[in-house]
From TrEMBL:
Broad class of the protein's primary localization: cytoplasm
Keyword Transport belongs to the record: no
UniProt keyword annotations, A-Z: Schiff base
Organism: Eubacterium segne
A Pfam family reported for this protein in Swiss-Prot or TrEMBL: TAL_FSA
Phylogenetic lineage: Bacteria, Bacillati, Bacillota, Clostridia, Eubacteriales
Protein name: Fructose-6-phosphate aldolase
InterPro entries per UniProt: Aldolase_TIM, TAL/FSA, Transaldolase_AS, TSA/FSA_arc/bac
Subcellular compartments: Cytoplasm
PANTHER family recorded: TRANSALDOLASE
Amino acid sequence: MKLIIDDANIEKVKKVWELYPCDGVTTNPSILAKSGRNPYEVLSELREIVGKDGELHVQVVSKDAEGMIEEAKVIREKLGENTFVKVPTTPQGLKAMKALAAEGVNITATAIYTPMQAFLAAKAGAKYTAPYINRIDNFGYNGVQVAMDIQDIFENNNLPCEVLAASFKNSQQVLELTKYGIGASTVATDVIEGLIKNAAIDAAIDAFNKDFESITGEGKTMANC
Ligand SMILES: O=C[C@H](O)COP(=O)(O)O
């Protein structure tokens, strides 16, 4: 499973990118709006953080296919041709996906709430489809199960598309999809940090270090004892 950062706060993304084994960054208009800055200013900084080969996902806002295609062109000009263009999975979005896929554009189909939406996006040429786990849970459905069903649909229909599960609110949702071997998950920085936040880990390390200090004295390590 690829692990992608769902955030555009430069300081937070920098920190998580440096510490954790992540594969890229996803954004959406709401995430970019939190910065209060010009979207391309923020996105250029994110591109610098992930490097030219890291995954960067950027969403279009036009409602019609022609507008989406035009936005995709500018996104790729400004941020690199390998940038994933996030296209909402609407009828107009599917039209745009077909045209963009024919030109070799990397497409992430987004705003996915149902398996059939993902099926259509994959057939239209998307490389990723992004079901919104927590938002689906909030409707009283099972977001994790929807993501698993989508992955099964791709396998059973030989569709070369991966699930990029999005909208996580807790570690359990991420764990379930990691166990299933979902293609990718995009997770907010605080939820990524929560994956490894555990007082028992700190307590174990403190006890080891105290024992070590009892034989070497303060401030020593395996490099200088
Ligand atoms: O791009 C989609 C987001 O991952 C949705 O996440 P959210 O439900 O936390 O806003």
